[in-house]
Amino acid sequence: MSLRQMEYFLTVVEESSFTRAADALHVTQPALSHQVKALERSVGGALLERMPRGVRLTPMGRAFLPHAQLAVRSARQAERAARAAAGAAGGELHIAAVHAVAVGLLPAVVARWRILHPGVRLVLREYGSTAELEEQVERGVADLAVGPEPKEWTGPVLAAGREEIVLVVPFDDPLAGRGAVRLAELADRDWIRCAMEPLVQGRPFLDWACGSVGFTPRSVLRTEHTSTAVRMAAAGVGIVAAPAHTVRGALGEDCVLLSLDPPWHRPLAVFSRAPLTGVAEAFAELVAPRSAVPQEQPHRPVGEQLGEQHLALVRDVRREQ
Fold this sequence. Notes:
Layout: H1 3-15, H2 18-25, H3 29-43, E1 48-51, E2 54-57, H4 59-85, E3 92-98, H5 99-104, H6 106-116, E4 121-127, H7 130-138, E5 144-148, E6 157-170, E7 180-181, E8 190-194, E9 199-200, E10 203-204, H8 205-212, E11 218-223, H9 226-234, E12 240-243, H10 244-251, E13 255-260, E14 264-271, H11 278-287, H12 302-320
Parallel strand pairs: 3-4, 3-5, 7-13, 8-11
Antiparallel strand pairs: 1-2, 5-14, 6-12, 6-13, 6-14, 9-10
Helix pairs in contact: 1-2, 1-3, 1-4, 2-3, 6-12, 9-10
């Protein structure tokens, strides 16, 4: 069994056709069929069922598929890591992030990266939930991830500060003049919910939080993305809870951010399956600098800390352009 054979097998699965897979791989169809059959002999059975119009996985093929995907991804990660450690130009760095972090925190980081490392191309993969992010990184889809701090992780994890979860209301909302609001005051308000809402004790976060103060949130709209939910809130559809840096990056003056009393926040981290080296380590340092303000500093709003870090990165980018 060889890595090339697994790559050929995965391409046939992706294309659902030996003919299209051969074209994608730039090999002849007989050569492709020979390699797949050799792979099937090595595992002891058929992985693909040849159909009149394409192919489909056999039960053995379905069991083999995720392991082949992980093996091929890990090999590509190993090659990228080796090139990065050697300082090779023209390499790639694959980053995974939840959508809210990609929209709110990463633009200034990536802009700075392009100045410091113009020879290394970035590939960003976005995910809708923390669970999906962790699952995909575990499967080797990226060199590192940026998102909420994972609860259980066997690889390296670097603390990247905390993000404040704020409430978003339009600028003419009766609450707009308030700096903070208690959750119990919002029992009669309409809420916008996002599919990316994290779970707490098996329940959507907002249901859990509102339930803890005695009410069930009245949901009037559900969206797929945090940025969409924020724009809906700015238009007056309802209140939404969102990371502060996402709102600042997306809307400017269209809305007002309200802190919760007591405040809501969650820790962010950079994490990876393998030790961070070379350009992966350099990118992690931009997101989670070792000289960052410790998380446990008292009396300092987390959203303020992240906002200042974001603005500092923007200022650095503009100075260096």
